Amino acid sequence: MxxxxxxxxLKSDDYHRDNKIILxxxxxxxxxxxTTLKKIPxxxxxxxxxxxxxxxxxxxxxxxxxxxxxxxxxxxYYRTGKLHYPNDVCGPLFETELQYWNLDSNQNSQGxxxxxxxxxRELSAFQELPxxxxxx
Length: 136
Known about the structure:
Layout: H1 2-19, E1 20-25, E2 28-33, H2 34-37, E3 55-56, E4 61-64, H3 68-80, H4 91-100, H5 116-125
Parallel strand pairs: 1-4
Antiparallel strand pairs: 1-2, 3-4
């Protein structure tokens, strides 16, 4: 009986090792499973392959020069189905990151929170600064 349990554990360990993926986002390494990233189809993360230009075979990771704090929330969305808005990030930056990762804040059918009320508050409070003028 112990040999069967040991064999099953070895197979499970192999599965986890083969299924694990490392994402380096803005210098912060995030580890998850490929199956987690497949939960939301047709997104940048669901389509990753080791043939991608941003895959570093030596380090065994994908590198993205993006905002690591926002990415932590995005990865958590893949894991939980709930997207939480980080308090330390402005609305336009968050929207830009969602677009980069091919996520849409209006995809309520996939569990993405509707940020329309937040967007209205954020945009009404956001004022564009005047462009610096050249002085001679």
